[in-house]
Specification:
heterodimer; A: 325 residues; alpha/beta; Rossmann fold; 11 helices; B: Rossmann fold; four-stranded antiparallel β-sheet; 32% helix; globular; disordered N terminus
Chain lengths: 325, 345
């Protein structure tokens, strides 16, 4: 089956006064229909900018300078603003970390939701309201009729995020980009949202890109995983394979840093140093200064290579011994 | 106190089981008094009243010397407030805080100051807890100088040592907080807390804002300092995997009350309270693949208007009539394992 989205060597650069920040510099991945793709990385790794690039929300001084974003074969990077607007919210939707970024604080929820419906479909206002009510019910908001008449501030954090998800679902999009939607929520509320999302993806065939820094969240949710470091995808593949047998030393270190992967009370396996500034990246592999496997050859540029079928890594010294074992 | 306060003294092993801090019936209420208009409206019969939040409600807790106690709960459960009461930043509305068996409120002068210095706090957001207009050397060195732990001539060496211990390069001490990364800022906060030679640290979500790889570095630092300086921790976090890794004992709070406490292995193997059980099942784990997320029903009620009886009953799958009226007491159900639930009889 054809992929819903295929990103090929995406490059998004920010032309700042201090220099060119290559926030995204060589990101490739594929999202199949109805699949959940986890995009993982630490702050500054470019995961959010990747999401923004796909949906065409990169603001000046940033620009998509290279690569292709193929949505059902159509290159989104080449579309005009008007064509993009036809897609955005209709066939591709986005959920943000802070639901107040989606919601207008001075408008009632029904006003905003009906507006979204009418922007892309010609239906009567009553029909639109009906659709909004269904969407709210679908994400588990009790008594959707009354809640439609509320303002965003009258919702709790978890409920607000549900409203944002309901808005994203209004047009049954083929692709939803979710940027850390549960990071600000409590554990039990996060569990509820994840359960809803899982159900929806399974029932509607919507593809999801789940952007997060939390490996534990995508472990239970995603089908595939792409790990980003300093603007590049350093490793990708099916979730269980990447998490059980990571090939790239960065993925290896990242998984080792998760407390539950360590014996209680013993020092965590940490990655030394910190993420480099995107303004002055080291040459070649950006990770080599923190890597315990680095050799002088690591200062040469590395490509994302298919090391074993279905799995890529951008490294010349991958952890292959564990994969083979 | 004598010269022993000038350095971190290694306590003999016999003291290990002594409580360093005891909380007896601690409550903390925040009241919003009515303003003039409110009072007027009330007198005219409008349904306005003073709002009282019971942030912490009758908590008893003993922390022994050298122990790491993890305090877990969701937002609004009162864990930060309790941490502040323990650290002596906030006075309790009711109850006593005993420092090595003596009521802190009864201490005066030098003794009170001493007890306060011995308990320090490390905050969640290092940016808002560090003065942006002070150089790092002053942030770290001011308090020890005021309290006579270092002299003007020894100041530089003292600050260097504190920074090095927290894993910072002393050459950076003339910089300001904004010139550091998040992880380094947290190290400054740690160096500042340790500079006054405390025995007891309250860490309030101290790694929550950090990236995974930096979080691991800071957690390792906490563990190293614990063994080097013989520290006792109250580690407040919403992240169960961090707490599980670090703590000897775990305390679970819900809406101002302690619902369960037990040694770490015990609570993760045999959680008793329905809230703990649902909390543990809601935590995403890296080991779990493509699993169905189980959910607790409903949301955390407002602490302004908590449900009567057991606070958890509206969300509890096992709730019965008794839960709606009677507050369950925290009872020992196994050695060292306490739980507040009517299901235990």
């Amino acid at each position: 089956m054809a992929a819903t989205l295929e990103v090929r060597n995406l490059q998004t650069h920010f032309f700042t006064r201090a220099g060119v920040v290559k926030a995204v510099d060589g990101v490739s991945f594929t999202v199949g229909r109805g699949k959940v793709m986890g995009l993982v990385g630490e702050s500054g790794s470019g995961k959010t900018v990747t999401g923004f690039s796909i949906i065409g929300l990169v603001d000046a001084p940033g620009r998509v300078v290279g690569g292709e974003i193929l949505f059902h074969g159509q290159n989104l990077a080449k579309l005009s603003e008007e064509e993009m607007r036809q897609l955005r919210g209709n066939r591709i939707a986005m959920i943000f970390q802070d639901p107040m970024m989606t919601l207008n604080p001075v408008l009632r929820v029904d006003t905003q939701m009906i507006e979204t419906v009418l922007a892309h479909t010609k239906v009567s206002k009553e029909e639109a309201r009906q659709r909004c009510r269904d969407a709210l019910g679908m994400v588990g908001i009790p008594s959707p009729d009354e809640r439609l008449k509320s303002y965003p501030h009258q919702f709790s954090g978890g409920m607000r995020q549900r409203v944002a998800i309901a808005i994203a679902l209004l047009h049954r999009p083929e692709l939803i980009i979710a940027d850390e939607p549960t990071t600000a929520l409590d554990v039990t509320i996060q569990g509820q949202i994840l359960a809803e999302v899982q159900k929806l993806a399974a029932n509607t065939g919507t593809s999801l890109i789940w952007i997060t820094h939390d490996l534990s969240v995508v472990a239970g949710l995603a089908d595939d995983l792409a790990v980003m470091y300093a603007g590049k995808v350093v490793e990708d593949g099916p979730v269980s394979e990447v998490l059980d047998k990571p090939m790239h030393p960065y993925t290896h270190g990242l998984i080792g840093s998760v407390p539950s992967r360590n014996r209680r009370g013993e020092p965590l396996r940490q990655i030394p140093g910190m993420t480099p500034s995107l303004l002055k990246l080291p040459p070649g592999c950006a990770f080599h200064s923190r890597c315990d496997r680095a050799t002088p050859e690591c200062t040469a540029p590395v490509e994302l290579l298919e090391l074993i079928p279905g799995r890529h890594a951008r490294c010349i010294h991958p952890h292959l011994e564990e994969v083979a074992a | 106190m004598s010269a022993t306060t000038m350095e971190h003294t290694r306590r003999p092993g016999t003291e290990a089981d002594q409580p360093i801090i005891e909380l007896v019936g601690i409550s903390k209420r925040f009241e919003k008094k009515l303003d003039f208009i409110g009072k007027l409206a009330q007198r005219l019969g409008a349904p306005v009243r003073e709002e009282i939040v019971h942030a912490v409600d009758n908590v008893n807790l003993t922390i022994r010397h050298g122990e790491v106690v993890g305090l877990v709960g969701e937002s609004g459960c009162g864990k930060s407030t309790l941490g502040r009461v323990v650290a002596g930043i906030m006075p309790p509305s009711d109850g006593q805080v005993l420092w090595r068996g003596r009521d802190i409120a009864s201490l005066h002068g030098a003794e009170a100051k001493e007890a306060k210095l011995r308990a320090q706090m490390i905050f969640q957001d290092p940016m808002s807890s560090l003065n942006p207009r002070m150089k790092v050397q002053d942030i770290v060195g001011e308090a020890p100088q005021v309290h006579g732990m270092t002299t003007r001539s020894g100041f530089n060496d003292y600050v260097d040592e504190q920074l090095r211990r927290a894993g910072l390069d002393p050459a950076l001490k003339k910089r300001y907080p904004h010139q550091f990364s998040g992880g380094q800022r947290q190290r400054i906060g740690i160096a500042r807390a340790l500079a006054v030679q405390p025995e007891f640290l309250v860490c309030d979500e101290s790694v929550a804002a950090l990236d995974v790889s930096i979080q691991a570095q800071i957690l390792n630092l906490f563990m190293r300092l614990r063994s080097e300086l013989n520290l006792t921790y109250l580690f407040i976090s919403h992240d169960l995997s961090v707490v599980e890794h670090l703590s000897d004992r775990v305390v679970i709070m819900y809406l101002g009350r302690v619902v369960e406490q037990a040694p770490s292995e015990e609570i993760f193997a045999r959680a008793n309270h329905p809230y703990t059980v649902s909390l543990l099942s809601a935590v995403p784990r890296i080991e779990a693949r493509k699993r169905a997320f189980t959910t607790v029903q409903g949301e955390i009620p407002s602490p302004l208007n908590p449900p009567p009886g057991c606070h958890f009953h509206p969300r509890c799958p096992h709730a019965m009539e008794r839960c709606r009226v009677e507050v369950p007491a925290l009872k020992e159900i196994a050695p060292g394992h306490l739980s507040a639930c009517h299901l235990n009889g």
